[in-house]
Amino acid sequence: MRIRQKTIFDVIEEEGTIFKDKSVFTTEYIPEIYQYRDHQLDSMAFHSRKVKSGYAPYNMLLKGTNATGKTTTLKKYFQLIKEAYSNVFTVYINCKIHRTEYQIFSEVYKTLFHEDIATLNTYNFYNRIMDYLTENKIILILGLDEFDNIKNSIELNRTLYDFLRAHEEYPDVQISVITVSSSKNITATDLNVSTIHLPIEIGFPFYTQQEVYSILKQRVDLGFYPGVISEDLIAYISERAYRLGNLRIGIKKLEHAGDRAEYKGHYKIEKADLM
After folding, report:
1. Cα dihedral 23→69→217→211 (10° resolution)
2. How confident is the model over 13-29, as pLDDT tens digits?
3. What does the alpha-carbon distance between residue 22 and residue 148 come to, in Å, rounded to a whole number?
4. DSSP state of 207
5. Segment holding 180, helix H or strand E
6. Quick one: fold of 207-274?
7. Facing residues of 153 across strands?
8. Distant-in-sequence, close-in-space partners of 54: CB < 8 Å, separation ≥ 6
9. For 213-261, how does the pLDDT look when each residue is reduced to its tens digit (9 = 90+)?
């Protein structure tokens, strides 16, 4: 009897043997139980106490090297503050993708109005956004992740100026900007921006080796079926991620090892799958 060869669709539709929840290994994943960044979250909450009185939080700058939890902490903060206060609206923007004032205003507009109007210019976006915030008494918290990647200092200063000085034209507008940077040399802002930006700096040191192991173990427990990977292999990946100073490498290593094992039809990850 001739055995039918698998098609590409057969492979895609196959039930896996390794992953219980693959989303756990993506950069978008926000853990329900968020480890080792309580201090940073508490600091962000402390500097947001004005929200209960209808005012925007202080501007903040989240600083640290790559893969130290800055982006996830920002998204967790956004999640928690939106759950607690119905008058708060948050917008997360990746400035590696959206690098100009126009693109940033366009993203804020799309998030607020759930529509994309390519014919509007920055001035139109600005006025519609500010009118909406004023009429609905909404506090806008804007997260600019990797803000050093904004195209140039002119675009950066225009963007910060327009958001942070909007209250001069719209007195009831409340806007806070949270910037995120992995750079040691943060782009300097113009005097008329820096005098009003004045962010509270919140540092993100790299995780200890034990913390790296604990975070990866949590992802393993949530993302893989029981018994898929040994404690020794988790420790091995943790040590490598710690030595390279990049937790994200460890998370991706787990995902790729799972993919390799699953492709082979195995029920366990072996050391060869880590290569």
Report:
1. 180
2. 556 789 999 999 998 99
3. 31
4. P
5. strand 174-181
6. Helicase, Ruva Protein; domain 3 (1.10.8)
7. none
8. 87, 137, 139, 174
9. 999 999 999 999 999 999 999 999 999 999 999 999 999 999 999 999 9
pLDDT of residue 226: 95
Give the closest residue to 150 by CA, choosing from 117, 118, 103.
103
Q: Which residue has the tokens 């390519």?
A: 118
> What percentage of residues in the chain have a pLDDT greater than 70?
94
Q: Which CATH class is domain 38-203?
A: alpha beta
Name the CA dihedral angle for 237, 240, 241, 246, rounded to a multiple of 10 degrees: -160
CB crowding 36-72: b at 16 or more within 10 Å, else e? bbeebbebbeebbeebeeeebbbbbbbbbeebbbbbb
**Domain segments of the chain as ranges:** 38-203, 207-274
Summarize the confidence of residues 193-199 as an average pLDDT.
92
Distance CA 32, CA 46 (A): 21
Q: Which helix (H) or strand (E) holds 44?
A: helix 38-46
Structure tokens, 143: 């997260």
> Higher-confidence residue: 34 or 203?
203
Q: Name which of 22, 36, 23, 38 is nearest 77 in CA terms.
A: 38
> Could you tell me the two tokens for 144?
């600019």
Beta strand 88-94 with 60-63 is: unpaired
